[in-house]
């Protein structure tokens, strides 16, 4: 999904035209777990809008074909909901733990 929108401004333009009220897709960073979970939350919220935009892509690019196949999977939404529900707190927790000058007890909420 990341490559589908990151590599082609034309696809972002189609998304913005089709769904002007949603923000652009996040760009998760491989080594930052919080960014991946934030991306899952985004796709959980906006999956139907993303589906409608992706269906309008007329390209034969491999990443587009892969995404078109993925969004047909009936279990995709339930997997996104599961991850968001069970792990959605992690980005905030990671941010709290990364703060400088905070004691461990305060950063994990014991104080």
Largest sheet: none
In DSSP terms (H or I, runs of 4 or more residues), the helix count works out at: 7
Straight-line N-to-C gap: 40 Å
Q: What is the residue-averaged pLDDT?
A: 87
Could you name the ranges where pLDDT drops below 50 across 5 or more consecutive residues? Answer: none
Gyration radius, rounded = 17 Å
Question: Which class of secondary structure composition applies to the elements?
Answer: mainly alpha
Order of helix and strand elements from N to C terminus: HHHHHHH
Helix content: 55-70%
What overall geometry do the principal axes of the alpha carbons give? elongated
Proportion of residues in extended strands: under 5%
Q: How many beta strands in the DSSP annotation?
A: 0
How does this structure look, described?
This protein is an all-alpha fold and about 110 residues long. About 65% of the residues lie in helices and about 0% in strands. The chain has helices at about 1-5, 10-20, 35-55, 60-70, 75-85, 90-100, 105.
């Amino acid at each position: 999904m990341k490559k589908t929108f990151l590599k082609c401004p034309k696809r972002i333009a189609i998304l913005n035209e089709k769904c002007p009220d949603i923000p652009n897709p996040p760009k998760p960073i491989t080594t930052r777990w919080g960014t991946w979970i934030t991306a899952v939350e985004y796709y959980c919220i906006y999956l139907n809008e993303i589906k409608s935009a992706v269906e309008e892509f007329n390209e034969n690019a491999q990443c587009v074909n892969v995404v078109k196949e993925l969004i047909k999977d009936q279990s995709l939404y339930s997997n996104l909901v599961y991850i968001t529900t069970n792990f959605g707190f992690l980005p905030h927790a990671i941010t709290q733990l990364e703060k400088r000058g905070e004691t461990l007890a305060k950063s994990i909420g014991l104080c």
